Amino acid sequence: MTDTATYPDLSGASVFITGGGSGIGAALTEGFLRQGSKVAFIGRSDASAFASEMEQATGNKPLFIQGDITDIATLRAAMDRAAAAHGPITRLVNNAANDQRHATLDVDEDFYDWSQSINLKSYFFSCQHAIRGMKSVGYGHIVNFSSISYMMGNAGYAIYTAANGAITAMTRSLAREFGPDHIRVNALAPGWVLTQKQLDKWADPQSVAAHVERQCLKETLAPEDIVNPTLFLSSNASRMMTGQAMVVDGGVVVTG
């Protein structure tokens, strides 16, 4: 873990992260634990060993809840369990996603529904459920992970990029709707972060080199590079930011 800023308001905060046991999510879990947050996360694969490792490394054990976020009843139950253990969720990080490549002409309805259930549907319903609890305590901060993929018009995963664009649009609408309740909703759009999954499946040397060439900063992104921006958006340091899409990509796309 690289050095991170300290945000006093995150100490003791009830945090819920989707997909918090691997890749970017695992780095986020560690980052919040080191802030002293009470962290719960959900994931399909068994992350009990990771949770124990985090307790050893940080002195702060996360609550791991195994489950499938595409099952909305399971997702809601996991969030309720987190709130029972740590108090109402005041920081929600929607990180879980699946960027499975697909050829548009080969897509059937089952694949489409599966992809959207992970990459968009779960985001909406986790926001909805968290917002109910946030309203009860009078505030909350949500970070929805999008991607620069839709901004670049990337080919090869049109359903995934459609979900990314929808996440940004949904974030803006939720920010407008629930701002009066002191609930902030922002999106974070990473570039190509070289998680182990990316390295195993798609990040061959030629593709990585070509992508880095498009960046202003000529270094690859690691999961740890996403931690500080997420902590910032989840803390009072960004208290007057809402409805925004923060890009962290080494300078591929330029916004503003």
UniProtKB/TrEMBL annotation:
SMART domains for this protein: PKS_KR
Superkingdom field: Bacteria
Coiled coil feature spans: none
Keyword terms of this UniProt record: Oxidoreductase
Gene Ontology terms, MF aspect: oxidoreductase activity, acting on the CH-OH group of donors, NAD or NADP as acceptor
Keyword Zinc-finger: no
A Pfam family it matches: adh_short_C2
Keyword RNA-binding belongs to the record: no
Organism this protein belongs to: Jannaschia pohangensis
Name this protein carries in UniProt: NAD(P)-dependent dehydrogenase, short-chain alcohol dehydrogenase family
UniProt domain Ketoreductase: residue ranges: 13-205
Family (UniProt): Belongs to the short-chain dehydrogenases/reductases (SDR) family.
